[in-house]
Every structure is written in C-alpha cells, then in structure tokens.
Protein: 1069_t:CDS:1
Amino acid sequence: KLYQEDLSVLEDDEDNYDEAEELETDILENCIERFTENVCSVIPLLKSPRLFEEPEHYFVDFVAGALPKFEKCNKDVELLRWIILYHLGQQIPNPVRLHVFWWEKSETVLAELQVMEMCPEIIKSITSLKNEEIRSLDLEAYLLEGVVN
Structure:
C-alpha cells in the first residue's frame, strides 16, 4: 500500500512525466528505492546482502510460487521465468523490485503464459531466441501473430 500511495502522488504531478507520457525513470526508481528502504526497515531479514546481491535463488522460488497450483510443471515454471525475464530486460531484480514488477504486470504475464501454452510452436520459437533477439522482440505482437496464423 505504501508503494501504491507514493506512486499515486507522483502520478498526480504532471512534471513527473517524460515525452512519452510515462513516469520518468529516475522518479519511478526513487519511489521503488523508498519503498525498499521502508520494507527493509520493517523486516530486518530483508537487509541480508545475499538477498540483494544474489537474487537468483529467490527468483527461482518466486517463479515457482507465482504459478497457479494446478499448473506447476517444470515446463510452465521455465516458461514463466522466460516471460518475466523478457519484461525485466533479462535481468533478475532484487526481491522487492520483483514484487513491484509482479504487482504491476502479473495479469499481463499470466495472460501471455496462457497464450503461449495454447500455441506450442510459439514456445518452441521464442525459447530458442538469443538475448539480442529477445531485447528487440515485441512479445505482444509476436503472440498475436502466432495465434492468428
């Protein structure tokens, strides 16, 4: 709730937007940093350097836990991992940033997962892409094209 309240205040100020009418990156980053500091002050265990310096272990557990219970197979976990990393620019974030991302994008990510599961050929082609190709991919358009064709 603290993050959403802070974000709402920032969104109300027209000076906080860039030319694309998106909240400026540095303003959003500062909001996430304030939220991270607040969460870490309430939950001291989160101050563990390993959690922020080596977030891979947390990320693996998070992805497995984010799937609906009936869908937990290795293929789905790997596919969800791929989708999340696509949206995060192939970078595993610290746990707080991962949760902020999930709050904002979980519905989109799970919808993309469902579309991919309906079209196995999309899964095959997408998971074979290299990092450079992933960065330039418009996933939404690619999925739409894959479903229509």
Summary: The mean pLDDT is 88. The longest helix spans residues 95-118. The chain has two domains: 1-47, 50-149. The two ends are 42 Å apart (CA to CA).
